[in-house]
Design goal:
Elements: E1 4-11, E2 14-20, E3 30-39, H1 41-48, E4 60-61, E5 66-73, H2 75-81, E6 88-95, H3 101-104, E7 139-142, E8 146-150, H4 157-160, H5 163-175, E9 184-188, H6 192-203, E10 208-213, H7 218-226, E11 231-234, H8 240-247, E12 252-257, H9 264-272, E13 273-281, H10 294-299, E14 303-306, H11 312-324, E15 333-338, H12 342-349, E16 360-364
Parallel strand pairs: 9-10, 9-12, 10-11, 12-13, 13-14, 15-16
Antiparallel strand pairs: 1-2, 1-4, 3-5, 3-7, 3-16, 5-6, 6-8
């Protein structure tokens, strides 16, 4: 049996375990023996929906939150990253061309240049050499366009797989809105990235941090409370505007909306934001926001900012936070599944397995 294996998606909703020949590594490449790969909420729709992937792009390997140990590395890539065999690294989910306007301005996560049509690891077909792109595999090939982030040896591969979610927390919850000492922050939504935003804000010095969820999110709200969030609100039971404005009569400095598909949260965000406050929108809605209170936003001079993806510096700082925080971040990882059960892990994260209450699902690829 080959030691190089991957769960290969062959059609919408279909994966199978395949074996591969061990690849030969060039001077500008590295072979990474993966230890873990986080399952993102986007993996649910990407795996199941036919509209996400053209039929010609199958088969391919999903998984865009991988962590592993460098098994082999070419001289060029070793010098560039100052890495060696045995080093643990987190793998950026995007390839970067390094020459387009976004890359040159430090927004490589929005690369629009030479990486080609497929610049997300988990969207690159097997037919594109070297083929081992995605994280739901025992091995991954890093190329000259891959960004690798060193992980301290004391941080396990499984825990390090939080780097992607926590990177979103650093960008969306701290950098974009300017969270600092004394900030008051409310995060709408308590998925893994919502809680990550709240935790990153608290680590940055926020004096008040709250998250919201629905009744079915009770396990997530309880975990947020355990991790030190000041307030976890079930919006099926109370009006978020009344609760927040009772505690913070002038409103809060920052509201981060991570909720998908619903647009009513945008009006709530405007209502609870203070004059001159900031609203960060990370959750894709899929439709126009009818009833958005533009006039109130204007009168309060609220800054509205959309966010997509995470930058290299934010991933590095997220890894540093994972390594240094005293908060029990491992509690975020509610489920760890073996490589062969990736589809089960996706079902668990989607809430489709009776009796299982997930927040963050990790695939053990070792």
């Amino acid at each position: 049996m080959s030691d190089v294996r991957a769960m290969v998606q062959t059609a919408p909703g279909v994966m199978e375990l395949r074996e591969f020949e061990r690849p030969t590594i060039r001077d500008d490449q590295a072979l990474i023996r993966l230890e873990a790969c986080g399952v993102c909420g986007s993996d649910i729709s990407i795996f199941r929906a036919s509209g996400h992937t053209p039929p010609s792009d199958f088969p391919l390997i999903r998984g865009h939150e991988p962590v592993g140990l460098i098994e082999e590395i070419g001289e060029v890539l070793a010098r560039r990253h100052n890495l060696k065999p045995g080093d643990r690294v987190a793998v950026d989910p995007f390839l970067r061309c390094g020459s387009c306007p976004n890359c040159l301005s430090g927004r490589g996560e929005l690369c629009s240049g030479g990486a080609g049509q497929h610049n997300t690891l988990s969207a690159i077909p097997l037919r594109v050499a070297p083929g081992l792109w995605g994280g739901f595999a025992t091995h991954l090939v890093a190329t000259a366009q891959t960004v690798l982030y060193p992980v301290p040896p004391e941080v396990s591969g499984t825990l390090a797989a939080l780097f992607n979610a926590m990177g979103a927390g650093v960008k969306w919850g701290v950098d974009v809105p300017g969270t600092t000492i004394g900030s008051r922050v409310v995060v709408l939504g308590c998925g893994q990235r919502g809680i990550a935003c709240a935790l990153a804000a608290l680590e940055a010095g926020a004096e008040f941090g709250a998250v919201t969820g629905l009744g079915r999110d009770a396990h997530k709200l309880a975990l947020a409370d355990e991790l030190g969030v000041h307030l976890a609100v079930d919006v099926d039971q109370v009006d978020i505007k009344e609760v927040i404005l009772d505690l913070q009569p002038s409103g809060v400095d920052i509201v981060i909306d991570t909720t998908p598909k619903t647009t009513g949260t945008l009006a709530d965000a405007v209502a609870i934001a203070t004059t001159g406050g900031s609203i960060v929108v990370a959750g894709l809605k899929g439709r126009l926001a009818d009833g958005f209170p533009v006039d109130e936003m204007v009168r309060k001079e609220i800054v509205l900012r959309g966010v997509l993806g995470v930058g290299a510096d934010q991933y590095r700082r997220a890894i540093s936070m994972i390594a240094s925080t005293t908060r029990p971040l491992h509690r975020l990882q509610t489920h760890v599944v073996p490589l062969e059960k990736v589809t089960y892990g996706i079902d668990v994260l989607a809430g489709d397995v009776e009796g299982e209450h997930a927040l963050n699902v990790v695939v053990d690829t070792a």
